[in-house]
Amino acid sequence: MNTLTAPPTTDLDELVTAVRAAVARPGGRRDTASHVADALCEHLPSPALLTPDQLAGERGTFRGHRLHVEPDGSFSMVAIVWQPGAVTRIHDHVTWCVFGVLAGVEYEDLYTLSEDGTALIEAGSNHAPVGEISGFAPPGDIHRVRNDSPDVAVSLHIYGTDLNAIGSSARRYYDLPIHP
């Protein structure tokens, strides 16, 4: 998916309405992710949607704040606060995901699974500064997210599922050797 850059806005209700319309459009998962990315680009909120308590945390940690779950379960929005040094486990997802960076820089390491399934192969890395929007749809979405900067990063993730029902968008965690 192409990466977009958006200026921040502050109205979460406008974003929910735009994502609702994007999800209702016909097409497959990748099409939906693209439509949702366009909606997020047009309605990217500012980090001011989170309270100072939500932005706080200990170095090396990250915390998600569920902002909206669509009543029909078609999508969920989560703001993730990445403290300096935070890093996720390598994982993939059950559904499409679109994210936009509201503050700081979000770093992502990409992987593919070896043909025999016994190792991960490095497939590249990205860094997303404020205003950058990106997304993906499985398969082929194995990654790790981290904050290598000295500043707090905040990103808004929109997942094509009901997180109240399933708890997490992660499908599988990968604890395999990594090959360049």
Automatic annotation (TrEMBL):
Q: Name one GO molecular function term.
A: ferrous iron binding
Where would I find the 3'-(S-cysteinyl)-tyrosine (Cys-Tyr) crosslink on this chain? C97-Y159
Cytoplasm listed as a keyword = no
Q: Which UniProt keywords apply?
A: Dioxygenase, Iron, Metal-binding, Oxidoreductase, Thioether bond
CDD domains (alphabetical): cupin_CDO
Q: Which residues bind Fe cation?
A: H91, H93, H143
Q: Which InterPro entries match?
A: CDO_1, RmlC-like_jellyroll, RmlC_Cupin_sf
Query: Does the keyword section mention Oxidoreductase?
Result: yes
Pfam family of this protein, just one?
CDO_I
What family does the database annotate? Answer: Belongs to the cysteine dioxygenase family.
- What is the name of the protein in this document? Cysteine dioxygenase
User: What is the originating organism of this protein?
Assistant: Actinomadura soli
